[in-house]
Amino acid sequence: MVKKSVIKILVLDDEPFMLKLLIYMLAELGFIQVSTCESGRAALELFHDPNRLPDLILLDLNMPDMDGIEFIRHLVDRSYSGGLILISGENERILQTVENLVRAHKIMALGHLQKPVNPKELSALLAKWMPLCSGGLRAATRAYTVDEVRAAVIHGEFMNYYQPKVEVASGKVMGLECLARWRHPSDGMVFPDQFIEVAEEHGLIDALTRALLSEAFQQTAVWQDNGLDLRIALNISMDNLTSLGFADYVVHAAYSAGIKPSDIVLEVTESRLMKNLTVPLEILTRLRLKRFSLSIDDFGTGHSSLNQLRDFPFDELKVDRGFVHGAANNDTLRAIYGASLSLAQQLGMKSVAEGVEDRADWDFVCSTGCDFAQGYFIAKPMPASEIPNWISAWETEVKNLMELRLT
Ligand code: G
Ligand code: G
Ligand code: MN
């Protein structure tokens, strides 16, 4: 982990008292390289000197001269790559909206703090952020070219990670979601958001999915042979569903690995709008007829919404993590989460809450009648080899959690 003493923090607030207070709070937490500015214009001066670039900015939204949103725009223009915490007296919904705006600009939003700032909340946000800079501050996440991704497919540089899904009522591990990882020879582990889109746009997603899928089915057969009663979920993009051969491929792969279609969940996301839905509809309907499960992934975001629910034969709904994490304390999220569950129930679908990140999320999900839960609180995605030991450890841990629930 990076030492706190080397982290450069900038606090931007027009109230001198707030600046003093935040310097004090940060010093108490061990952050000593803190600069302060009373206006956006003064803060932007810092950006002329690469040695003074902050790793983290605490930003007040309401300032008379340049407001926080304008300042964020300047950060984008300067390709700011550090973290950002918003501070304001505005209500939760406005802060949440601005936080989304920051993320849309691809700036890392750690979260927001309402004035008066509570030192415990500040400390919690910083504690969550610190491990993220452990790979070196400003670890470059670069965009990969089609040629690089194609070569990686050919050389078999992708591998599967698996993230557990548990049944909320019993705590039992019901299945695993397979998530692609790229073991890049020089860049280390590369995450899907850095290669899936390129693969989708350049016709490589099919080759990539097929490789991951065969591996996942074979691995699942091994687990099942060893007495682990697990289902396997795979992410399928709409771009996988453009050629009719896909259904036959999946059926054949399941058959050769020796696993039942009813133990296979295909999680479908539509990251961009598709013009022709007839072919995807035909493929998915055939697979459903053969008893594969179909899950609508990231429900409520992007194109993953009511149209899809109406048109496709989904039998599982995954509420996007954006409506799960933090829902316990956020009226807007809770309303959307509740409505999504209710839709699933009325349509006779199973529901999954993803993004169960902490104890509060878990307790909340347990109180709602959702069927399954997935998220960092339960487990992060891991290589296949770690699954059996993780399951043993979880079974003990969840017993304690369930007992607490009863008392
Ligand atoms: O693995 P992460 O933990 O970072 O996954 C990020 C996103 O990438 C998820 O939304 C997931 O749906 C997507 N993703 C992961 N693996 C695959 C894959 O094999 N195929 C497709 N199409 N998407 C994937
Ligand atoms: O639904 P999708 O396929 O998008 O979900 C998988 C993605 O979600 C992966 O990137 C995985 O690493 C990530 N993920 C899983 N659990 C959590 C969680 O609790 N919190 C967050 N922020 N991301 C999670
Ligand atoms: Mn998914």
Describe what you observe in this structure.
The strands form two sheets. The chain has an eight-stranded mixed β-barrel with strand order 6-7-9-10-11-12-13-14, surrounded by four helices. Strands 2-1-3-4-5 form a five-stranded parallel beta sheet, with helices on both faces. Helix 8 packs parallel to helix 9. With 407 residues, it is of the alpha/beta class. Bound molecules: guanosine-5'-monophosphate (2 copies) and manganese (II) ion. The site of one guanosine-5'-monophosphate has 13 residues, from strand 7, helix 8 and strand 9.
Whole-angstrom Rg: 23 Å
Number of strands: 15
Helix content range: 40-55%
Task: Name every ligand kind in the structure.
Answer: guanosine-5'-monophosphate, manganese (II) ion
Write down the overall mean pLDDT.
91
- The coarse silhouette is globular
- Biggest sheet: strands, sense, closure? 8 strands, mixed, barrel
Outline of this structure?
With 407 residues, this protein is of the alpha/beta class. The chain has 14 helices and 15 strands.
Keywords:
binds manganese (II) ion, five-stranded parallel β-sheet, binds guanosine-5'-monophosphate, 40% helix, 14 helices, alpha/beta, eight-stranded mixed beta barrel, single chain
Task: Set out the fold topology.
Blueprint: E1 8-12, H1 16-28, E2 33-37, H2 40-45, E3 56-60, H3 68-77, E4 83-88, H4 92-104, E5 108-114, H5 119-129, H6 146-154, E6 158-167, E7 173-184, E8 188-190, H7 196-201, H8 205-225, E9 231-237, H9 245-257, E10 264-269, H10 278-289, E11 293-299, H11 306-311, E12 316-319, H12 331-346, E13 350-353, H13 359-366, E14 372-373, E15 382-383, H14 387-406
Parallel strand pairs: 1-2, 1-3, 3-4, 4-5, 7-9, 9-10, 10-11, 11-12, 12-13, 13-14
Antiparallel strand pairs: 6-7, 6-14, 6-15, 7-8
Helix pairs in contact: 8-9, 9-10
The site of one guanosine-5'-monophosphate (G) has 14 residues, from strand 11.
